[in-house]
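Structure first, sequence second, as always.
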């Protein structure tokens, strides 16, 4: 592990209060919880990454869900997007179990870490450009600390763009023209192989734009790239 350890980065993420709008929103979401979560103690802070510190696969999403990771304190945990993601990772051999309910549920990731480009739950899942840029440094530091990462699986166009920007900041070549996002799109970024997937949000899963088989295929593609 590098000198700037994942433990230090995770602590700094959880303590971050750089973006006033996001601080207010994540705290408001914790206070105004929907009926099914009333009485639960919300995490209500920025959400660090989760998984194997020696991971070769980084799964990158957009941001915590207001009543998902903002509630549970673990990325992609406690919401339907996470249900889809961890089932796929389990089927692909990267997760010890197919469910992710809370931080104490026993889930372990193998050769995989999951993170988000923006660490606080944003209103309407739409961070501002300024909020995006404030969080970018955390992703760059996380990738530096994850010295073994070779494949980045980007869930959605926002994560895809964040990965491209981070790779460039880390001195990796980004092709021109800029690689376009799409489901199963790929880009070679020096030491990283970037793979795109539609985000497993309800907007995509309820409409059939993303099926579990679609998600399995990109997870399997990540595994194949790791074997090359």
């Amino acid at each position: 592990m590098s000198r700037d350890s994942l433990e230090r980065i995770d602590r700094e993420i959880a303590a971050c209060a750089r973006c006033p709008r996001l601080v207010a929103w994540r705290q408001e979401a914790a206070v105004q919880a929907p009926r099914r979560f009333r009485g639960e103690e919300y995490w209500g802070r920025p959400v660090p990454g989760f998984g194997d510190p020696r991971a070769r696969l980084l799964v990158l999403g957009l941001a915590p869900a207001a009543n998902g990771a903002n509630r549970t304190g673990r990325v992609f945990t406690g919401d339907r997007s996470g249900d889809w993601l961890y089932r796929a990772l389990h089927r692909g051999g990267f997760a010890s179990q197919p469910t992710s309910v809370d931080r104490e549920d026993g889930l372990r990731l193998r050769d995989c870490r999951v993170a988000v480009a923006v660490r606080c739950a944003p209103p309407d899942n739409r961070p501002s450009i300024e909020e995006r840029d404030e969080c970018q440094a955390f992703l760059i530091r996380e990738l530096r600390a994850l010295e073994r990462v070779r494949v980045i699986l980007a869930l959605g166009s926002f994560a895809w763009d964040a990965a491209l920007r981070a790779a460039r900041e880390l001195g990796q070549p980004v092709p021109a023209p800029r690689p376009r996002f799409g489901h199963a799109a790929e880009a070679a970024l020096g030491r990283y192989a970037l793979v795109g997937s539609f985000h497993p949000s309800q907007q995509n899963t309820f409409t059939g734009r993303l099926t579990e088989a679609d998600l399995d295929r990109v997870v399997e593609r990540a595994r194949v790239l790791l074997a090359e």
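Margin note: The chain has a mean pLDDT of 96.
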